[in-house]
Specification:
The chain has 466 residues and is α+β, with helices and mostly antiparallel strands. It contains ten helices and twelve strands. The chain folds into three domains: 13-155, Beta-Lactamase; 216-301, Signal transduction histidine kinase, dimerisation/phosphotransfer (DHp) domain (Helix Hairpins), CATH 1.10.287; 308-447, Heat Shock Protein 90 (2-Layer Sandwich). A five-stranded antiparallel sheet has the order 2-1-5-4-3, covered by helices on one side. The two termini are 67 Å apart.
Length: 466
Amino acid sequence: MSLLPDSIRTRTTVAVAALSLLFLSVIGASLDFLALDRGEAAVFQEAQRAATNWLGTFQPGSTPPPTAEGRINLLQLVDSQGHVELATPAAAGRPRLATVQPPVDNRVEDRVVCPRHGPCLMIAAIRVPPLETREIWHGDPHFIYAGMVQPPLLASHLLESLTAAGVLLLTALIAWGNWWVGGRTLRTVEGIRSTMAEITVSDLSMRVPQPPGRSEFAHLACTANQTLDRLEEAVKQQRRFASTTSHELRTPLTGLRTSLEEAMLYPREVDPRQTIRDALSVTQRLEMIVDDLLVLARLRAGDPAAHEPLDLGALVRDEAAAQTGGLPVEAHVTRDLVVRGSRIQLIRVVGNLLANARRHAESLIEVTAERVDGYAVVTVTDDGAGIAPADRERVFERFVRLDEGRRREPGGSGLGLAISRDIAHAHDGTLRIEDSPRGARFVLRLPLMDPPPGRPLSPGVPAWRA
């Protein structure tokens, strides 16, 4: 896998190797240039010093022969015609070392001379000053050539070859280091990948290995494990939901089938009209359960609903007023409780809470809507038997119905409160049961939003306190 051309390890190694080769080549070429330049400058400086020292010994009528100084073993005194008058033993018998004759205004010139036969020479050509020329040679120009055989390091491409070899070796080491580090770094990703490949829907208990520290890979592994936790919990919920749903649907279907079979087997003993009425009643309950299941599935799937600014207080007041017949409903509503949400879904929440309160209340239902700490808070309180603290979360589960609820309304689906809580969560709010002196108190909290511009807040009615 790591050798694939599109793998991160291969691509980064190739990129690092290419950049390293480029930079090291530039650095190596610069170092070569500096080394060669300084080497040549040092040789020419020694040659000029040797020639100057010899020139300092010239006297009228006396020109001593030259002597070698250090590496500078080639010295010649040449007249204007190119005849060699004096020379060191190493330069004796040679023709003049160079043909260049520096002018008066530029008395020193450096040259690399490569004769047809033999090695190249590094020569410093110096014109004898006019004073010495007049006093010693009556104005005939003379020239001193000083130098040496070009050193092997400067004469050959050895330095360039060594530098190129060093650049390639360093590039290879950098590429290998990147490959090794990349392999160790991506080992965590490979562990995550291999573990994820083994995870199936039937077994979501496995978790990816999480490296220590707070690196990006550690965060990736942590996020992957958190996602697997949520996925495992979601699958468990789906399985529980499927099991509970099949049970809830099987009961009325079994009763319906039994009733129809009795009508077929005993036509003279069973009233067909009553059988049809019972079947219609069961069918109506099944239809209600299926509709609630579809709503709950859409909410759990996160299907978006059209949200708009709406006055929650007015909505609560209208729903409370629509509760005609049965027990009275007292509403205490603060106006201009502007929230952003789906009108149909929030009407369903308030309607479910009022229906639940009507089912359990003894004589009165009280509803309030007020503003508390940036939230619109709607409370629905009944004066019934209340809900035990141990059951306050259970009633929001699907198909959960307490004994009191089954007694008062046997045909309920047990999905109303679960749907209401999901709608509250879809609106970034909460729905829960809080303490109450008597009965049950359901509290819905939704975040407020600023009212539309140009619309002043109306004074509210004092809210009822439980």
